[in-house]
Design goal:
Elements lengths: L3 H5 L21 H22 L1 H12 L7 H13 L8 H27 L4 H6 L1 H32 L7 H17 L3 H30 L8 H33 L10 H17 L3 H26 L12
Protein name: Phosphate transport protein MIR1
Organism: Violaceomyces palustris
């Protein structure tokens, strides 16, 4: 019987998303391979999330103060600049870049790892037939561990954005939360962030895989036959659609996460009680506050991430990956 690597990989001829046209000089395995996946994922997420920090600042303000920032995304930019200066749009850049560097590494690297672990327990035919379940399971497991790393930095970012005078940057904000609230202050939003990020990541990876597979099938080529320009176009287009799906599904939890991290809990308040109270106060419509802005932000981020990730994997020689798409 063929080995696992023979059944599920084709060296540099096949990878997820679509491989770079640069050929790998070697085929790393084990820790070496997955550390490269981690680095590629960490860099693509830090770059993309850092680049859209101004949009995220506006989105967070709209969620937290909808009666003040009620003029849409462009109007929100103007309000913040007029009131606090252009520099305010970069509030939270430090924790954003640091947090999503860690989260991106665990998210993408974990997805590759868990996908391999799952498919190694079944035949090629079974894996292909159940690929949607594999995508969903691998992305959910990866996101859980990614959120453990992200949560403290996301709590710091939201506090800095929602309370501009809270601290002067990442280190000051992190130290103040640690001093005044302890570990609980960093993980007050862990439940909401799981509720937000796990469905988000499942929708993101599964949608990307399905859209990519069907788009390439309609195009009439396999992944390995695409040129560099074609691969980039497919990654960007599929990533944009995946971002829209993920943003819509996770929007209510994103709103609650912003709310719960805005201020510390009152004595005796539980996280569950706070979430239930906030959801009741906001209502269905309120939970989707800021969605248009977030669609733009998440769609752009996701398209950029998959494009950058595919290119970085090629440059790092991390092309020895599990491939179960029919478009391979």
């Amino acid at each position: 019987m063929a080995s696992f690597s023979e059944r599920f990989t084709q060296g540099s001829a096949s990878q997820y998303p679509i491989r770079s046209t640069l050929e790998a000089k070697s085929s790393p395995e084990g820790v070496d391979l997955y550390s490269r996946f981690f680095l590629a994922g960490a860099l693509c997420c830090a770059i993309t999330h850092g680049a859209v920090t101004p949009i995220d600042v506006v989105k967070t303000r709209i969620q937290l103060e909808p009666t003040v920032y009620n003029k849409g995304m462009v109007g929100g930019f103007r309000q913040i600049i007029a009131k606090e200066g252009a520099g305010a749009l970069l509030t939270g850049l430090g924790p954003t870049a640091a947090g999503y560097f860690l989260q991106g590494g665990f998210k993408f690297g974990g997805y590759e790892l868990f996908k391999k672990l799952i498919v190694s327990k079944m035949s090629n035919e079974t894996a292909v037939e159940n690929r949607m379940a594999i995508y969903l399971g691998a992305s959910a497991a990866a996101e859980f561990f990614a959120d453990i790393a992200l949560c403290p930095l996301e709590a710091t970012r939201i506090r800095l954005v929602s309370q501009p005078t809270f601290a002067n940057g990442l280190l000051g904000g992190f130290a103040r939360i640690a001093r005044e609230e302890g570990l609980g202050g960093f993980y007050a939003g862990f439940g909401p962030i799981l509720f937000k990020q796990i469905p988000y990541n499942m929708a993101k990876f599964a949608t990307m895989e399905v859209v990519l597979e069907n788009a390439i099938a309609a195009y009439g080529k396999t992944k390995s036959e695409l040129s560099g320009g074609e691969a980039t176009a497919f990654n960007l287009g599929s990533g944009l659609i995946a971002g829209f799906a993920a943003a819509t599904i996770s929007q209510p939890a994103d709103t609650l996460l912003s709310k719960i991290n805005k201020q510390k809990a009152l004595p005796g308040e539980t996280i569950t009680g706070r979430l239930a109270k906030m959801a009741g106060e906001l209502g269905f419509r309120g939970l989707f506050t800021g969605l248009p802005t977030r669609l733009i932000m998440v769609g752009t981020i996701t398209a950029g991430q998959f494009s950058i990730y595919g290119e970085l994997k090629g440059r790092l020689g991390a092309t020895n990956t599990v491939e179960i798409s029919k478009a391979a």
